[in-house]
């Protein structure tokens, strides 16, 4: 998911996506601890998607505060 796609969403949609990604990250960590994780690269992708969403949300908040 690109930052440009995220900027076109509303803050509520971004927060919902953030919750879903955090749940997925928890499940991936759990599966890794029990040696059931097949695609270890997915953990990195989820972490980066979470960071992207947080960055876009902070940009939106800063823009709203500036106006």
From TrEMBL:
Domain of life: Bacteria
UniProt entry keywords in alphabetical sequence: Ribonucleoprotein, Ribosomal protein
Any Pfam family matching the protein: Ribosomal_L29
GO process terms (BP): translation
InterPro entries linked: Ribosomal_protein_uL29, Ribosomal_uL29, Ribosomal_uL29_CS, Ribosomal_uL29_sf
GO molecular function, one term: structural constituent of ribosome
SUPFAM superfamilies linked to this entry: Ribosomal protein L29 (L29p) (SSF46561)
Gene Ontology cellular component list: cytosolic large ribosomal subunit
Family: Belongs to the universal ribosomal protein uL29 family.
Name of the molecule in the record: Large ribosomal subunit protein uL29
Organism: Falsigemmobacter intermedius
Lineage: Bacteria, Pseudomonadati, Pseudomonadota, Alphaproteobacteria, Rhodobacterales
């Amino acid at each position: 998911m690109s930052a440009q796609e995220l900027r076109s969403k509303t803050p509520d949609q971004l927060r919902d996506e953030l919750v879903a990604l955090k749940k997925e990250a928890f499940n991936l960590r759990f599966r890794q601890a029990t040696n059931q994780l097949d695609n270890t690269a997915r953990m990195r992708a989820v972490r980066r998607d979470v960071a992207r969403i947080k960055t876009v949300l902070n940009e939106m908040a800063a823009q709203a505060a500036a106006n």
